[in-house]
Amino acid sequence: MTVNTATIGYPRIGRNREWKKAIEAYWKQETTEAELHNQLHELYVNQLRIQKDKGIDFVSVGDFSYYDHMLDTAVMFNIIPARFKKQNLSALDTYYAMARGNKEAEACEMTKWFNTNYHYIVPEFTDVTPALNENRPLAYWQKAKDELALNGKPLLIGPATFILLGKGFKQEEVSSLFAQLTPLYIQVIKELHEAGAEWIQIDEPIFVTNKAEGYWKEVEAFYQRISEEVPGANLIIQTYFEALDNYQSVVNLPVNAFGLDFVHDERKNSEAIKAHGFPKGKKLFAGVIDGRNVWKSNLIEKAALVSELQKLVGKEEVIVQPSSTLLHVPVTVETEQELPADIRAGLSFAEEKLTELELLKDLLKGDSEAVKAHQQEIEAFSKVANRVHTKTRAELEQIDDQALSRASVAERQRLQKEKFDLPLLPTTTIGSLPQTAEVRSKRLKWKQGQLTNEQYEAFIKEETKRWIEVQEEIGIDVLVHGEFERTDMVEFFGERLGGMLTTKNGWVQSYGSRCVRPPVVYGDVYLVEPMTVKEIVYAQSLTEKVVKGMLTGPITILNWSFPRTDISKYESMNQIALAIRKEVKALEEAGVHMIQVDEPALREGLPIRAEKQAAYLNATVEAFRLATTGVEDTTQIHTHMCYSKFDDMIDTISALDADVISIEASRSHGNIISSFEQYSYDKEIGLGIYDIHSPRIPSFEEMTNNLDRALRVLNPAQFWVNPDCGLKTRNEKQVIDALTQMVNVTKKYREKLAAVAQ
Ligand code: GLN
Ligand code: ZN
What we know:
Binding site for Zn(2+) 1: 640, 642, 664, 725
CATH topology of the largest domain: TIM Barrel
CATH class of the largest domain: Alpha Beta
Pfam families: Meth_synt_1, Meth_synt_2
Number of helices: 28
Bound molecules: glutamine, zinc ion
Number of strands: 21
Active site: 693
Function: Catalyzes the transfer of a methyl group from 5-methyltetrahydrofolate to homocysteine resulting in methionine formation.
Oligomer: single chain
Keywords: Amino-acid biosynthesis, Metal-binding, Methionine biosynthesis, Methyltransferase, Repeat, Transferase, Zinc
Radius of gyration: 26 Å
Distance between the termini: 86 Å
Shape: globular
């Protein structure tokens, strides 16, 4: 008895991030559009070839993208805001303008994709006329057919997910959006079916949330129409990241197959099948190999799970696959030869997961020899020596409520105002400064041994010094050292903390062309030695102004790493928090009395299902406090958040008890600001007054308006002026121009406030 295998998405970036390099070269106008198409075509075909060669039976096609799959869907259906349409750019440049903004128009909003560290471009449905610009999945399907004789499984984002994750419409307009998009989906699916696509995958991850609940009539009508208009097409409704919110409603939809996550569902999906049955004759695409994490699967256990599903659903009907697209894991462990062998033995990235599917297939056929070596590797990893750090465990036991609290906010504010004596509306930045080609090339040379430690450190010092001067010249009030020594805000700490490892080439797409290398938490985490003191103390020695210490917080370190699965995530988070607490203390002792602990990923880790959210939020507050409350009341703790909506979690943000928070605000067009109308926030706060993701420098008026809007709801005495986020991705000129503008706007504003006060 053989079982078939499938994939539902694969990393786009290539083994060496060729994807990123090709796209960025096009942006810099180093290559032409035709060259970009050629390069990406090759990458696309290659990713399919790998899957085909590994023997995957149903390979998904058209998961590939030039930036983001939600943006692809929007452009395909002509959901293109007027501010881009009217520029009359080429199709490709319109696409990239929507993603990145340009001189004439602000970029579309970007936000996180469910509980992952992937960010999608939010479709804007304001004043648009849906139309089919191109049958994208068909083009990708055809390429697979022509190049590899592969009858792939084309993939579309389903209408419920596409619309409900979008913006720019009222609740009562959802029906009409479904109605407008339905004929377009029909045409796409019809053409795919007529061309010969055997299976068509419709991603509806929104079905694991309760967001579609109020629109179920529209959802049913849509799938009903498709089944009537294209009766022969085999549709799979594919979900992932959680159990279905409403199993019975989903499996009643008139399609031929359902794809469910059996890794992140806490057994709820299999329980639902047991309790309510599975529709006869339909296929179950069973996500049994973890598509989100990097650990080898215990295939004996997986085979047992598959057998259980086969009993419930029918032997012929189950197809095995990863629990989600493999976009969220790195490409291959093969490039990680420098890792200790017993640790590497425990890892499985995208290519290895394909092998796991093959092995699982063999095992289900009855060939248990095939998985012997695999199972032994898992065994070897479980015995890695330093996975338990007893000292950390004992110290955590000792932490009580008192260790987690500080003096009242009012008292701290009084002490800190006196100590720092900053002007009204103090200006600052979020931490990183341009990681120029020079910075990156020096780091590379140092890593390759072409620069000595001393040479590299001298360069970092030079760069820090230059930028301290630049910041002073611009007139910023609270300075930063620039983070030149860091590649990435999490990786830097992952390299230095005990119990964590970093990879050489384990890149994962984060947003657009930006990739990150998430560290791996493989054991108990602890502080080996101070990680940031030297650089900050040096920067502080160069100036009379205050330089903020700069750390990444425990929530973000954990959420942007691959967590271990043998202890709870919250336990790991507290271990990291304890390490950061020691680092904060070390900074304070070295004379650094303003310390920022960044938590941009706070929101990202929020469980999808409402019933799990309170526990998560409590755990994050505890971890952040553990990291930051070990200091004197005169020491000012800052934090920073970005990349997602925070307007509905102000109370959690407040409970973190940071003295100052900076939050991204300009790209989400002020939603966060209005939430402060309802909530009286008693700490200091800076709502970003310009978007740093775009190369565009906002005008004086624009920045003033953003500041003005914030100060309509917040008291100037509690307000800081800063950009939305770190400046590492911008070039030197953009940063200097933008910050100069920001300081000028602030000075003008201070004058205005002073005039009013008189
Ligand atoms: N301090 C970090 C930086 O400026 C914060 C980055 C972030 O929030 N993503 O780059
Ligand atoms: Zn940020």
